[in-house]
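Take a careful look at the sequence and tokenised backbone pasted below. I need to know what the token row says about the fold.
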Amino acid sequence: MELTATELAKLIEGNIEGDGSVSLNQLAKIEEGAPGSLTFLANPEYEAFIYTTEASAALVEMSFEARKPLPPALTLIRVSDPYQAFAKILELAVDGDQYEAGVHPTAYVSPKASIGSGCYIGPFASIEDGAILGDGCQIHSHVSIGRKVMLGANCTLHRRVAIMDGCIIGNECTFQSGSIIGSDGFGFAPNQDNVYQKVPQTGNVVIGDRCEVGAGTTIDRATLGSTRIDTGVKLDNQIQVAHNVRIGMNTVIAAQTGIAGSTTIGSHCMIGGQVGFAGHIQVADGVKIAAKSGVTKSIQEKNTVWQGNPALPIRDYQKQQITLRKLIRSLALQRIEALEQKLS
């Protein structure tokens, strides 16, 4: 993608300050800017780099005021939110890299499958009986789409994604490489001989519109009914979502989190990395949970912040940590005083 600064500013509703005719053909971090590149300044900690960057243009806030002379060749594009504007530009760049529609000769598409218009199906992809793909889907190499899967329009499945039988996916969803949707849940029951027998998992996974699932993330099918991921949910890499879990709208979850079976997480929640959820609990809407926390019981209070293992309201956790540090310090002082007495 190559645009002038003026053309780019029109796309993101920005105001030009400097040479609007400068040509931009790449994107760069502010500390690595090069001639012809566009960068952005959203974090004040990086402001020092805008006075030395070699980028040709930079996105800055409307209220930005330079405290030093800027590079003479740097054009500013003032926007209300530089980070959001840069994200929109990245999205435009990615859309420009879409693969051309068509089916690769090594792909397998069942004659009983239905493929929408404008779809790309890459090398060694497999689409089985009864699968339905909406218009404009991008199915990359070695992707496996099972029987009777329903995939909405404009979905992107990166390399080696597997969508198992009967799963239902909404529109404009993205699945990063190696994610697995609809594998069997971890269901085993001991018999009279204390031998674990598998409990058949007969449900599916239902995912709403505009969701993203990270690389290596697994979402298990329900034992009965559906595991549900609501519209707008964003899951990072290497997350485990067990059978019959439900995640509410626009919740975001960071890497290596594990959610045990039949747990419900509300809408607009923010979950840090490596958080563990016990099974059969409920988490209210708007809850934030700090990284490495362990949630062992239901959280009923909306829009609260929790931390620790077991997780506590964050103020309680902080008080606990302060008390513990004081106790350790007190015990250490007692030992020092005892040693001094012995020495004297």
